[in-house]
Specification:
Chain lengths: 428, 143
């Protein structure tokens, strides 16, 4: 079974690289996920493929990538389920106008800047098989992403979770995540409608119907799981098996509808019962396999599609720098200014802006979708992957500079605990 | 009063801006799309006594084109997966093989027939070697 041997070898190398580089990055105060992302990029043509193309050809032969991709997509589905599971709509209520305004502004302003940048990027990095509208909407969406899980992890590690900055940021990021995924689903639907066998009205109607079924039908059915959990005192294997079935069935439906399988998995997590012990135990059962074993495969698969060497010439690197600058200006600027205008002091507003600028794994997910549906080109994909890495990397050091520990203790106020941070599915 | 004003400033105006930009961008002209896989039928007579070429094959070869705007990366389906760095200018494709091959350096020049059939790419592979260069015409159709 040559494919199995190749896959096992790939998993071994990827795991080793991810743990090693993740450990190194933890040593310098960065989240583990940043190291794992860089390890994944390094295994691709950007580093390993450049240093040793022969070894790369043996380790990642083209006919083996389908298996690696499939396995990594399963990991991503589980991860997206966990992201949805951690999202508690009750914690988003009563956040106050400041949080709502800041979260909306931190989506719209980077979206606007992304659309503006698209005017420049479209004639040079796209082609006439993609309409400007689709291209600009996608770039705008990609610019407006915040990595909710890694953000929660950073807040936990820096003991900011219970602070005013922490609760405000988490609330904003949660709203950001849900909104950005909805916008992305819409963009994917629009792009796919031009190529799909189903007409757009059917795809939109189907998606709306499906979401309705999930919110009003499946949610009620899944609520029974909470009763079974209380009765048994644990998440049994039968319950877990049922949950897996629902996740994969939902993913299959959204994939068929043309939205993408990820939304289906996310939606299942979002409609799951939110009793804290139940979600904790479920999360614990799935987290390690998804985060430790399967997600690094996704990072490696992303890395195999990322070719930094393809950015040849000053013009391309200028484009990359422009993307990074616009991304930071949009997210950091949008969140900081709106937080400031709602009355927060500059340092707190700046801290929120820095944290909201974290893009992490969520950005990679969006970019891979964009490349899959053909709305962004390989070079633009690489540039935006670099942007995701840079914006995530700078979060921790900038936060330490703008909002140091002594200031936090001066401003900390007792707040109700939100379920996040230590329970977050990943540093994604 | 302040909150509606903030919403107008921070949300309303950017939304209007986005709509304006989307309208503005409709007039932009991106490069012609040549990405994807193309089956190139070679003119065997040009190969003469060679009959076949190490990179190009005998009768046909598959070109896989990865496009980022005007930048092209073209890969042949030979054993070495010979790649070309190229550019597209209007309907013209110009590319050069990345690394010199044992037998010859290869250039590619082609043009898309925009008017009658944009799914057709017609051009020539130029094999530069000793003692002289060989031009191998081809017609490629998109898979």
């Amino acid at each position: 079974m040559p494919h199995l041997l190749t896959l096992l070898l790939q998993i071994g190398v990827i795991l080793l690289a991810a743990r090693l580089v993740g450990w190194l990055f933890r040593k310098i105060g960065q989240p583990q996920v940043v190291g794992e992302m860089i390890a994944g990029i390094g295994l691709g043509p950007s580093l390993l493929g450049w240093l040793s193309p022969g070894f790369t050809a043996v380790l990642f032969p083209p006919d083996s990538l389908g298996f690696l991709n499939s396995l990594s997509q399963v990991g991503l589905l589980l991860f997206m389920f966990l992201v949805g599971l951690e999202m508690d709509p009750k914690s988003l209520r009563h956040r106050g106008h400041a949080a709502v305004l800041t979260s909306h502004a931190s989506i719209i302003i980077p979206f606007f800047l992304g659309t503006l940048l698209a005017l420049y990027l479209y004639p040079t990095l796209s082609d006439d098989s993609v309409s400007f509208t689709h291209f600009a909407l996608f770039v705008g969406t990609a610019m407006s992403i915040t990595a909710f899980p890694v953000l929660a992890r950073i807040l936990t590690e820096r003991q900011l979770l219970r602070s005013h900055v922490g609760t405000m940021t988490i609330a904003c990021a949660a709203v950001d995540d849900v909104t950005a995924w909805c916008i992305l689903a819409g963009v994917v639907l629009m792009v796919q409608a031009t190529k799909a066998a189903l007409p757009l009205w059917l795809m939109v109607g189907g998606a709306a119907l499906y979401i309705g079924i999930m919110l009003y039908g499946v949610r009620r059915a899944l609520a029974k799981l909470e009763g079974f959990f209380r009765m048994r005192g644990e998440v049994t294997q039968d319950m877990l098996g049922l949950i897996f079935l629902v996740i994969f069935a939902s993913a299959a439906v959204t994939e068929w509808l043309g939205i993408h399988a990820l939304f289906g998995a996310f939606l299942v997590g979002a409609v799951m019962p939110k009793e804290s012990r139940f979600t904790s135990e479920l999360s614990e059962k799935l987290k390690d396999v998804a985060v430790v074993l399967l997600l690094p495969l996704y990072f490696a698969f992303t890395g195999l599609r990322t070719s930094i060497g393809a950015l040849n010439g000053t013009a391309m690197w200028f484009d990359c720098a422009a993307i990074i600058a616009f991304a930071i200006a949009g997210k950091f600027g949008g969140a900081t200014i709106s937080a400031r205008l709602t009355g927060l002091p500059w340092r707190q507003a700046g801290a929120i802006g820095i944290l909201m600028n974290t893009r992490g794994l969520m950005e990679l997910v969006v970019l891979n979708i964009g490349l899959d549906i053909g709305v962004i080109s390989p070079a633009l994909f690489t540039m935006m992957v670099i942007m995701a890495l840079v914006t995530t990397f700078i979060t921790t050091p900038l936060l330490g500079w703008v909002y140091p520990t002594q200031l936090r203790w001066q401003e900390s106020t007792p707040v109700a605990q939100l379920r996040l941070g230590s329970q977050s599915p990943a540093e994604g | 009063m302040r909150l509606p004003l903030l919403y107008l400033l921070l949300i309303g105006m950017p939304v209007l801006g986005i709509l304006g930009l989307l309208r503005l961008g409709r007039d932009l002209t991106p490069p012609l799309s040549v990405r994807g896989s193309w089956v190139a039928q070679l003119d065997r007579r040009a190969l003469g006594e060679m009959r076949c070429d190490e990179a190009l094959g005998c009768d046909q070869t598959i070109l896989t084109i990865s496009q980022s705007g005007t930048h092209l990366l073209i890969t042949l389906n030979d054993k070495r997966a010979t790649t070309f760095d190229g550019q597209i200018q209007e309907a013209a494709v110009i590319a050069e093989a990345r690394s010199p091959l044992a037998t010859a350096a290869i250039h590619l020049q082609a043009e898309v027939d925009r008017q009658t059939d944009p799914q057709r790419l017609q051009g020539v592979f130029i094999l530069q070697g000793s003692p002289s260069s060989i031009q191998v015409p081809f017609v490629a159709t998109r898979l």
